[in-house]
Amino acid sequence: MAKSTRRCPAFYSKYGERICHRSIYCDFTAIDDDAHNMKHQWHEIAAKVHDNIQRSKAMRRIVMFYLLAALSAHSLAADNEQVQGQGGNILRYSSTQLRIEPSAQENQSYLQVRDTRLEGATTASALQAGRKALEALGYNRIEVDADYGLIRAEKDEVLISQSRQILRGILKLKFPLPGKPDHQTTETLLTLRPGGQAGQVLLRAHIRQTIWDSNGNSRTKLCSDQAVYRQLYDKMNSALSGRQ
Question: For the chain, how are helix, strand and coil distributed in percent, rounded to 5?
Fold first, then answer.
């Protein structure tokens, strides 16, 4: 069979060059592919922009929620609690310090025990006896103001063992554990002045205790335990009488 000599239709450029219709078709196909790819890329970009906008809106909602929670934290405190340092309620960004006002019963108990009389003493000897008594009770920071008859003292006590502290520290690396009390700071202020009779000194004591938890939060409260005050007075009387 004779080989066909039919030639494909051709087009000519303005310069007289012969152009095959197949090459023109291929060029248009490539243009269509590029347009399709560009359209797909624009769709991807639009989808990413939409996702970013949605994430931004969600993040703004979360931030506003935490801000409102932090601002309303004061209203979450009890009536007898004063927030001195707010570290967040839901979002914990710092520690929180609370000052607890004593109840009527606690205040009455404190008023009954805060004052006592030291017999056979002078202000100077009472100050010295107060220092010895506080040292015997474990106070390691003691300041004595002889001019105004004041003694300020402070001590720290660990409430849990070191092994438990280490265990909680390890667990907190993996789990958001709530804070647990782990140490306590006791601050004592003693005020002394001469009594109405010779050899008599009037003493007023004020003891405040702060309990710290493992997250750095604190609760400060007036000590109204009468046994704590009587123990201090007994130690001072023993020091005055030379039994200590």
Answer: 45, 25, 30
Cβ atoms of 6 and 16 closer than 8 Å: no
pTM above 0.70, yes or no: no
From the CA atom positions of the chain, what is the Rg in Å? 41
Flag the least confident range among 9-23, 38-52, 83-97: 9-23
Pure H helices in the chain? 21-71, 73-76, 104-113, 123-136, 162-172, 226-240
Residues 6+ apart with CB under 8 A from 158: 182, 183
Instruction: Identify the CA nearest to 139 among candidates 147, 127, 150, 130.
Output: 130
Q: How far apart are CA 190 and CA 152, in angstroms?
A: 7
- The CA-to-CA distance between both ends of the chain, in Å, stands at 135
Q: In the prediction, which pLDDT does 141 show? A: 96
Among residues 206, 207, 154, 205, the alpha carbon closest in space to that of 183 is found at 154
- State the residue for tokens 């078709």: 25
